[in-house]
Amino acid sequence: MLHGVxxxxxxxxxxxxxxxxxEALVHSWANAYGYRPIRxxxxxxxxxxCRAIGEVTDIVEKEMYAFEDALNGExxxxxxEGTAGCVRAVIEHNLLHAGPQRLYYWxxxxxxxxxxxxxxxxxxxxxxxxFGLPDPEVDAELILMGARLWExxxxxxxxxxxxxxxxxxxxxxxxxxxxxxxxxxxxxxxEESRRRLSRNPLRILDSKNPALQPLIEEAPRxxxxxxxxxxxxxxxxxxxxxxxxxPYRVNPRLVRGLDYYNRTVFEWVTPKLGAQGTVCAGxxxxxxxxxxxxxxxxxxxxxxxxxxxxxxWQTCGGEPPAVELDVYLLHxxxxxxxxxxxxxxxxxxxGFSVVVHAGGGSLxxxxxxxxxxxxxxxxxxxxxxLATQTVTIxxxxxxxxQRRVAWSEAxxxxxxxxxxxxxxxxxDPVA
Length: 431
Ligand code: HAM
What we know:
Layout: H1 15-32, E1 36-37, E2 43-45, H2 46-53, H3 58-63, E3 66-68, E4 75-78, H4 83-92, E5 101-110, E6 122-131, H5 136-153, E7 159-164, H6 168-184, H7 191-199, H8 213-217, H9 228-243, E8 249-250, E9 262-269, E10 278-284, H10 288-291, E11 299-305, H11 306-315, E12 327-331, H12 334-349, E13 354-356, H13 363-372, E14 377-381, H14 383-388, E15 390-395, E16 403-406, H15 407-419
Helix pairs in contact: 5-9
The protein binds histidyl-adenosine monophosphate.
């Protein structure tokens, strides 16, 4: 028996229908804010992620599916997130030449984490990235976008946490303070934090080790060392959130697990999903484009975890929509089966969803299948109908009389029965 890869899930009906519904909603939501879709490859050169996300991060150190292409020796990796590839594409195709860009994507990401509820090795993100605009309005709008989506989905119990990570020189100063501070307590650090002490002390603040929390709690806060411009930017973002009626909690310990951020960072968290409560996260990354070789330009964005948002949606009453099948078409004998095949195609061309019965059997057994299919109507095309070039329409889930109509009329009659409307000329199509 072959099994799928641990932590990589099949998404089966009816849950897959909830995914479709969510995806459709995401497209209209992104469009409402002027964001356009971008699709980048699932595989990128490994150095892209190392440089963008940072060498001393959990993702790059422990979680990346990186491999050497056996055919040509290239170093490649399955994308652990979408921002790096998006920035690579923006630089490579010089998209900023045409002015600021608002882009979004949807797709699978890969991280070799320990699988548990809400944490998978293949998971999906919807990501939104805005390139070329430094204004606090952009940061606030990205947060508003999240809030709008939660509202559209009817999600409750989502809290916004926000922080500012300052600009590079402020971070450098803070870094020195952190090294100073943690060096004083080096004996109390765990092995991982000790290793990070000189290379990336900010990451120590991200440690999940409970024993370190009191020490982390007392560590110097970047928020206390922001310069005037950064502080003003952050205050402007907060003021816009207040204006928009979006509650937030400033969390000076929020540092994010990827190195590219500066200034605003934020996370939407819920207590409803247990340990994996962060459903959406992002922030500003003004230095990344230049760092990856592009002309310097500001940027900001976020990504939501689709599995987590859908899990939350389900706890808030989100349900897969019922399968919408209009017609189940029954037939008897080779001749009528050929006619049924043609009729089904004609109906599909007019927009009806049609399943043609397969597998033979009596009309009675076929009707059982029709009933189980969830179709609104059974259409029967047996010997008598074949001889008179007609088809019998039997409502299964709607009120109405069974009736027999000519093949050429089937579509119009079905439409009339389904939408209950009089035809515009007021005549009965089967009279
Ligand atoms: P991230 O915080 O690493 O940020 O991931 C964003 C979201 O993806 C998380 O909040 C979570 O909902 C979901 N997620 C992450 N890992 C897993 C996993 N193993 N299983 C299930 N869901 C997961 C980023 O990826 C940044 N690229 C976000 C961003 C975009 N920042 C700026 N632009």
